Fold 3-hydroxyacyl-CoA dehydrogenase family protein.
Amino acid sequence: MIKNQDILNIEIGVVGLGLMGSSIVVALLISGHPVKGIAPKKNDMKDALPRIIDQLKHAEACGLLERPIEAYLERLTLSEDYHHLKDCQLVQECVTEVEEIKGEVYQKIVAATGMNTIISSNTSAIPISILQKLVPNPSRFMGVHWAEPAYMTRFLEITKGEQTAEDGARWVLELAHFWDKEPTFLRKDIRGFVTNRLMYAVYREIFHLIENGETTVEDADKSFRYDAGSWMTFMGVFQRMDQLGLEDFAEAFGRIFPTLCNSDKVPLLMQRMVEAKARGIQNQRGLYSYTAGEAQEWERSFAAFNEDIYHLASAYSPTRKKKQFHE
Ligand SMILES: NC(=O)c1ccc[n+]([C@@H]2O[C@H](COP(=O)([O-])OP(=O)(O)OC[C@H]3O[C@@H](n4cnc5c(N)ncnc54)[C@H](O)[C@@H]3O)[C@@H](O)[C@H]2O)c1
């Protein structure tokens, strides 16, 4: 059993210090781990430290730090040299979502670590059973999928591939409670894992309704926000069904399931968007239209919202363990 005090001695490596890698570094530092951050590209070295310091300041402003920022930074090593990973018990890969790039990075991690080191990938969509074939000890490889910003979200999905050993996955699952997460454990490697699959079912139906002229983008969004959005941080889908009454759901399933979309095609509206090079708020052309100022304001207000929802989810979490940062 892992104890609070152990966390201080469990070194964790993070390879890839882009958007997610940096915020994973911050999440692990806040939890008390010594962290080795490896920059696979020169640019990472230039940008990572300022980004990590900004995120630590943000975490401090949100009341997540128990020590001054310097105390966390003392436990961080940033380098381009993979040899710093040699004592890490876990190395979290967080590089671009391209199998070949991840494969090259694994070779460097493997060369720097022992056969017992657990290697985890933050991949959103590449099956773990495929990625684990790229390392010599696949039993110690798994998916550990974080949400951005990693230090302010309670989501964490741990996924076993076909060859992942149960004990290592269970160890990471236990560790994740010290990261203040509500981790889920996916015992079988399915494409998109659980979280993405749930959302893809919603995406398909929502495009179907819009393409059939049954609703609009704005109204579909309103329905999702103000119905599901009013309860889903408090309870899950199954708790919701228990709360509302199972018989009613059974009856509705029988009537509504046959009317839901089961297309396996990319929705036409999405195809048109991609052809028109619409990239949403990044180039202010998407399913909605934005000015540059509106796009920026939206990002700002989402960051503030993230803070509120993190605290709200914590306040109503039944399993929350309070972490302690010891000297
Ligand atoms: N951004 C998110 O919200 C999010 C959420 C969940 C999972 N992920 C996953 O996390 C991973 C990283 O995503 P990100 O958003 O941090 O991306 P990012 O673009 O911010 O960072 C990419 C990282 O990959 C490195 N990299 C790029 N080309 C490389 C190469 N040829 N060789 C070695 N390293 C290279 C970069 O140096 C950088 O560290 C991806 O697998 C992504 O699917 C991202």
About this structure: The pocket of nicotinamide-adenine-dinucleotide is lined by residues 16-21, 40-41, 44, 94-97, 101, 105, 122-124, 145, 148 (CB under 6 Å). The chain has two domains: 4-191, 196-315. Strands lie at 12-15, 35-38, 76-79, 90-93, 118-121, 141-146, 155-160, 182-186. DSSP finds 13 helices and eight strands in the chain.
